[in-house]
Amino acid sequence: MALNRLQYKKYVSYRPLGWSLTSEGKQEAKNKHLFEYIPSPFKKDSPDITIVAFDIPEPERKLRNWLRNQLKIFGYKMLQQSLWLGPGPLPRDFLERLENLKIRKNIKTFRIKKLS
Within 10 Å of residue 86's Cβ, how many Cβ atoms? Predict the structure, then answer.
């Protein structure tokens, strides 16, 4: 049943030697990998020194939800729907993931310095 759905979506094809991924299936698998979560590099008591603000359009809801969940994993707290406060600096692999998802341009980060 599942293979039939994947074949209908052109993600797999059946050949005499068995099932194999099509180029569309390989691309879909790559896209799914981009939505995996990155473990938090921060300690539980890390100070909140970074603000993350983002504006991701409604048609990109999956990306927006992924970003919110990822920020929660990092220990960020929501100030508003698209304004979060948490530890920093953000990990390099997270920033690279934003680039690969083509949403880095929609995200601004601000570092908070202590006032003397």
Answer: 21
CATH number for the domain harbouring residue 76? 3.30.70
Residue 27 reports pLDDT greater than 80? no
**Number of domains, the chain:** 2
Residue 31 lies in a domain: no
Question: Cis before residue 89, ω within 30 degrees of 0?
Answer: yes
Answer for the pair 79, 85: CB distance below 8 angstroms, yes or no. yes
- Tens digit of each residue's pLDDT (9 = 90 or more) over 69-106: 999 999 999 999 999 999 999 999 999 999 999 999 99
Residue 63: domain span: 50-111
What's this model's pTM, rounded to 2 decimal places?
A: 0.74
With residues binned 3-state (H G I as helix, E B as strand, rest as coil), the percentages for the chain, rounded to 5, are: 40, 20, 35
Q: Is the same domain home to 22 and 57?
A: no
